[in-house]
Amino acid sequence: MALAGKQIDPDIPVDERIAAAIRSRLEEGNLPCAAACELAEALGVPPAEVGLAADRLRIHLARCQL
Fold this sequence. Notes:
- The protein has three helices and two strands.
- It has helices at residues 16-24, 33-43, 47-56; strands spanning 31-32, 61-62.
- The two termini are 13 Å apart.
């Protein structure tokens, strides 16, 4: 689902460790899907957690690998 169509609860905090890692890997304001997967592995969290953090930060995933 595109970011614009998602219901995002603004009261759920973003893990700052994940947010900082996401911001460090942005390319033209977007997070490449491969980078999201690499971050998840490096941080020891499920890829979905990185995806949810990106959603909460209003950052689009790019170049999806599906």
